[in-house]
Amino acid sequence: MKDLLEIEDLVLKFYTYEGVVEALDEVNLTLKEGETLGLVGETGCGKSMTALSILVLVPSPGKIEGGHIFIEQGEKRLDLLGQKEPFLRKIRGDEISMIFQEPRVYLNPVYTVLDQISEVYMQHRLKELCQMAIKEIDNEIESGKAGSLAEFEKSMCRELLENPTSPMLEIAARIPILNRYKRRLKRILRKEVVEILKNMEIADPERVVDMYPHELSGGMAQRVIVAMALACNPRLLIADEPTTNLDVTVQLQILNLIRTLKKKYGSSILYITHDMGVVAELCQRVAVMYAGSVCEIAGVMEIFKDPLHPYTKGLLESIPQPGKEFKSIEGTVPSLINPPTGCRFHDRCPYALEVCAKTKPKMIEVKKDHFIKCHLFTGDQE
Amino acid sequence: MEASSRWQQFKVSVQPTLKELKFTLNRIKQSSISVIGLAILVFYIAMALLAPVLAPPLPRADPYMMPQESLIFMPRPPSPNHIFGTTENQFDLWYGCVWGTRTAFRIGFMVVVGGLAIGLLIGCVAGYYGGIIDELMMRFTDIIFAFPGLVLAMAFYMAIPDRITIFQWGDINWTTNIMSLDKVLIALVLVSWPSYTRVIRGEILRVKTEDYIEAAKAVGCSDFRVLMKHVIPNSIYPIVIMASLDIGAIVLSAAALSFLGIGAQKGYSDWGQLIALSRNWIYGDINNPLAYWHVFLIPGIFIFTFVLGWNLLGDAFRDILDPTIRRR
């Protein structure tokens, strides 16, 4: 399998009044084509920031200070961090798209479901839409059903196809009769959106399409968000805790939906969560993050059976199990303004060596496809 | 058959709009106060539309100029010929009040639209882009804010020339006169925008950090599109409501300016001017202090009810136009 996405030594810093927050410290990740990678870690360890970095949408005062994010584009590898804004806009939503945590707040309250999903479609699939409209008009002309303005409509669609920002169209769209082409496009768009919603297993999509976000239930809103993300068949889907705020049954439905859609569209998924159960259910590989860096990556069975990094061990032990006493990792998550020197986990680590406080460990491959960032395995014990 | 199917399509396409309109009307109906407000405004709108019927202008005269029977200084009380009587210099009060309705609507709408346009532009740019642009624009707004509105409006009025040259090239001169009422409009616009700017900037700062804006960016929208399609529709309601409440208040300010002698040219149908003309007659004489009551009371009632109507309706607008509390 080819690598679809490769993150190399990503460094992200936030310049706040209180000091520099070192949110991401040399994150390394690879995502293969067609796989589902789980990204787990505690709250505030930089999972969401990694996701936003991939879209190059880090909120200010954040700044990406180093590293590369490569994405496979045909034969080439492109570094997203060096690209200009217009190019990135073409990528966002089309090739890489994102499902967010809180479905309700990520939907714009003043637009209907139709408007929200067509927004994505209009951004990236305008050409296909025009071609469909032209085809429809041609069919009408052939069967003799066309109105008197069919030829004119066709020429408008063609103009839109060739020159989407033409000022002539801007004016025509506001004049009745002349803007018929726009209505046809809207009709086709509506059909497309209903089709997408049907794929999301939404009951009665014809009705849902005209609803506003506040009329949707949580599960329904999350399906709409998933629909928005998948409207353009992205190659990479980033799911940022999509089921955290849903109750368990709806959660399962959404997970099943994501799994079937993945089979259908063949996208790779970066699944961000702190729920180990979901990871076991859905992912092929797991990356564990702690305080701004990835400390262990391995296959999902490997992680559960043979966790090597002390943090991963602690994390797995702190999953509550019936009949056992609660266990948690000693100490607290460090502040990222003055992070611990060396390995960021050393002051909570039961196996810490002297070297751990001094130098940062490097990512090494201890077994096949099992990467780890820990001095216990690198052999630099000085 | 073709036509009827198109009609069906049209019916389906307007259905949601009609439904919302019905809902809005129902909401207005529910509160008696806003029904009164609406009734007052409907009355004034009808009066403005029917002005040529209610008070037919003289042939070949500017319909906005009040007819003047003679130059006698003293007002005359209501009579069958002049049902509201005449004011100073024998201007017909009924005619002035009826045609003044048009002037009032014109002042209210144009000043509000102008103020909104400037306020929206500056507020959006300042709020959305932030940083040094925000700082500069908001400090400028503060400076305008620091002056008392009416005084600043007077200063602007004085500063606007009567004639301006739009285009000049060699001997070709293209100049235009600015009517003194338009000068008042411009002056009021230049004074009224800062409050809109403040509110819209605050709203944009709030909306900018909402998660759906991030989602819109993640979908690939450009900055301009995010601002126009996602930020503004979510932040515009407070100032739309503010503006609808302001229409009444602006008519009041224009009347106040008129009273101070800054307004339309003499004889122009304008309620403010009618009030200004009554200045000498508020107190009649020792024996009969209210001898000239009609001169100030009638235009006063017109202004009072007009502003009251907007204020009553504005309250209802606040509940109805805001989509988040609309259905509660």
Any overview of this molecule?
The complex is a heterodimer of chains A (382) and B (328). Chain A has a domain at 113-198. Chain A is built from 14 helices and twelve strands. Chain A has helices spanning 47-54, 85-91, 113-124, 126-142, 150-162, 167-172, 180-199, 205-208, 218-230, 248-265, 276-282, 300-305, 310-317, 375-378, and strands at residues 3-16, 19-32, 36-40, 62-73, 76-79, 96-99, 236-240, 268-273, 285-290, 293-299, 364-367, 370-372. Chain A has an eight-stranded mixed beta sheet with strand order 6-7-8-3-9-10-12-11, with helices on both faces. The longest helix of chain A is centred in the middle third of the chain and has 20 residues, at 180-199. Chain B is globular, with a radius of gyration of 24 Å. Chain B has helices at 2-30, 32-49, 51-54, 93-129, 131-146, 149-159, 180-208, 211-218, 223-235, 237-259, 271-277, 293-321, and strands at 163-169, 172-177. The two termini of chain B are 43 Å apart. The chains are: A alpha/beta (382), B mainly alpha (328). The A-B interface holds A 55, 57, 59, 85-86, 89-94, 97-98, 100, 102, 105-111, 119-120, 123-124, 147, 183, 210, 212, 214, 225, 228 and B 2, 13, 16, 210-212, 214-222, 229-230, 233-234, 323-324.
